[in-house]
Amino acid sequence: QVQLVESGGGLVQPGGSLRLSCAASGRTLSWYTMGWFRQAPGKEREFVTDITWTGGSTYYANSVKGRFTISRDDAKNTVYLQMNSLKPEDTAVYYCAARAPRSPEYDYWGQGTQVTVSS
After folding, report:
1. What does 12-58 look like in DSSP terms, one character per residue?
2. CA dihedral defined by 26, 92, 70, 17, rounded to 10 degrees?
3. Which of 15, 51, 87, 108 has the most CB within a 10 Å radius?
C-alpha cells in the first residue's frame, strides 16, 4: 500500500508561483510513474504532468508546458510540482498519484491540495 500526502497549496496572485510537494510512504516508489492531476469546480479531473521514477522522463499537458516543472527526490520519496506564471485558470484541487509498472491506470491517489489563483 502507498500513501500519498500533498502539501504546498494556497492562494497566490496571477503571475505568482507555488511549489507543491507529494510525500509518499508505505513503499519505495522506485519504478513507479508519479503524476499530478487537477480538478477545477464543475470540471472533470485532468492530467497535468508525470515523471517516470527512475528514468526521469517527463510529460506535460499543453496548458502548463513551459510554466510547470515536475521533479522528484529519490532519497525523500517525494515528488514536486513547481508552478510559475500562474493564471486564474490554474485554480483547482491538485492531486498526486502513483502508477505501478505495467499498470494501465494510476493505483494510488493523495487527498488533494487546493490552489487558488486570484487577485
Report:
1. E-TT--EEEEEEEESS--TT-EEEEEEE-TTS--EEEEEEETTT--E
2. -120
3. 51
- Model confidence at 6: pLDDT above 70: yes
The residues facing 93 across adjacent strands are: 39, 114
Residue 100 per-residue DSSP state = -
Q: 30: which 3 cell numbers?
A: 522506485
Residue identified by cell 510559475 is 84
Helix (H) / strand (E) containing 95: strand 92-99
Round to whole Å and give the CA distance between 40 and 23.
23
Encode pLDDT of 29-73 as tens digits: 777 899 999 999 999 999 999 998 765 789 999 999 999 999 988
What lies within 8 Å, CB to CB, of 59 at 6+ separation is: 49, 50, 51
- Residue 83 sits at the vertex; the CA angle it makes with 7 and 99, to the nearest 5 degrees, is 60
